[in-house]
Amino acid sequence: MKLTGRTGLWAIGLLVAVAAAGVLGSHRFAPTREPMAARCPQDPRVALACYEERYRSIVAAQGVAEAFADLKAGYGADPEMQRLCHAITHAIGQAAVRRYSTVADAFAYGDNACGSGYYHGVMQGFALTLGREQLLSDLDAVCAAVPGKERKSLDYFNCVHGLGHAIMAVRTDELFDALHDCDGLTGSMEQNACVNGVFMENLIVDGAHGGHYSKYLKPGEPLYPCTAVGDKYKAECFAMQTSYALGVVQGDFAKVFALCAEVGAPFRKNCYQSLGRDAATISRDQVPATVATCKLGRDHEQRSYCVLGAVLDFVYYYHADVQAQALCSGVERELQQGCRSAIAQLVGRF
Question: What is the CB neighbour count within 10 angstroms for residue 8?
Fold first, then answer.
């Protein structure tokens, strides 16, 4: 199933930015103060540059905590900030590099808001400081001091995932070169997390950076580049790509379920699971809307993997299992046990 025409690139960008921000989860914002009066313009052509300058300045003058406090204070009433939030937190992370001497030090001041973009930005900042040759010479060393390596903690995952974003930065978004670089990491979890970061960055540059469209995305072939990469990368690619495909078809989940159905086994399950994450993210991790979206799946396989992707996003979003358990209680009976098992496997990472 191919879709033709370059359909609504700003609409695609909006859906990609919203969905990609949910890939690693966000806290619900609990502002601790009133929003500041002066905000950035709502014109999408200039908004991101304004926000990047604003939050880099705050980090430089007052620190990371103050930057996040300001972000959370203004988020609820600012649609452009909501759309660009992941990219904004990238900028906060990049600015943090100037204040802290190591990745581990910068991570200690982190916040998971807006899809953990801060950590991705930290990694990009350190990568650009080191330069391509030095970064790629010893990838294993970059995250070695981040706590939780042995148990594959969320912080450690964010670091090796962020390496994918960082490698894309030093490779100027050359996706296939970046994928090969990720192979230089020791450990399958590390390699897969890095590859996931590469594919996520490929979506984000298209959706959130003011008209900077990746050459590795094709509106006429919404599941590309997953259809072109080697099998060792396909699972991580399909686990991300539905965010872009949804933008192409203007949010029609049924059409993307049909696209995923054409993907060969075993990778179509990753495609369905990716749709579950998108369902949760676009619903703002609310149970009724997420359940209704996963019910658009035509068979047990589609619905079960959709629910799996959704419940994992719920755990990341809330950093707890209460709402995720409510989601499991709201799905079809035959899907509930698998849903709860997924929660049990994930909560230990926190």
Answer: 14
String of DSSP letters for 199-223: HHHHHHHHHHSTT---TT--TTSTT
HSE-up (13 A, CA, CB side) for residue 300? 5
The reported pTM is 0.83
* Contact (CB, 8 A) for 338 and 308: yes
For the record, the structure tokens of 259 come out as 């696209």
How far apart, in Å, are the Cα atoms of 84 and each of 17, 18, 207, 224, 277? 7, 8, 9, 24, 19
Q: Considering all CA atoms of the chain, what is the largest pairwise distance in Å, rounded to the nearest integer?
A: 54
Contact residues for 275 (Cβ-Cβ < 8 A; gap 6+): 242, 246, 253, 256, 257, 260, 294, 306, 309
- pLDDT digit string (tens) for 9-45? 333 443 444 444 444 444 446 566 665 656 788 888 8
The answer to whether 225 touches 216, Cβ cutoff 8 Å, is yes
* Cα–Cα distance measured from residue 30 to residue 13, given in angstroms and rounded to the nearest whole number: 27
